[in-house]
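Hi V.,

Quick status before I head out on leave. The structure for the redesign project is tokenized and pasted below; the design run finished overnight.
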């Protein structure tokens, strides 16, 4: 696997100590966290009572050598436009943030680790 792109639910489960998610992250040579996932996590932390601890844990995780926070680029936007049009043609929309996550996954040639089945509606995406 070239790169493991992680969705918000996989990160959260791993940090809670869920064995499957934790194992997946431990075994990955390279982990990509889309900036969209980073934003979803920060938004979630704001609504909880452990914001500071969660932020510190996230920053420590993303500071490791194996982890890259992937920004949205013009290449990402190209993949986004392809995915949007594909889903519209099928009549199977998914949440906009998830389209950006899928676009970043495709841009980086990675496999997406997620628990959201709707990513399976996207042609060409590799799911873990």
């Amino acid at each position: 696997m070239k790169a493991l792109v992680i969705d918000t639910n996989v990160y959260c489960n791993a940090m809670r100590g869920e064995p499957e998610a934790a194992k997946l992250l431990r075994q990955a040579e390279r982990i990509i966290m889309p900036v969209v996932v980073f934003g979803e996590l920060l938004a979630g932390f704001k609504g909880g009572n452990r914001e500071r601890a969660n932020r510190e844990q996230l920053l420590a995780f993303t500071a490791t050598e194996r982890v890259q926070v992937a920004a949205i680029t013009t290449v990402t936007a190209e993949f986004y436009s392809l995915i949007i049009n594909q889903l519209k043609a099928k009549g199977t929309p998914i949440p906009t943030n998830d389209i950006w996550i899928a676009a970043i996954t495709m841009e980086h040639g990675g496999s997406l680790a997620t628990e959201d089945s709707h990513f399976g509606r996207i042609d060409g995406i590799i799911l873990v």
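Above is the designed sequence. The two ends are 10 Å apart (CA to CA).

G. will cover questions while I'm gone.

Best,
W.
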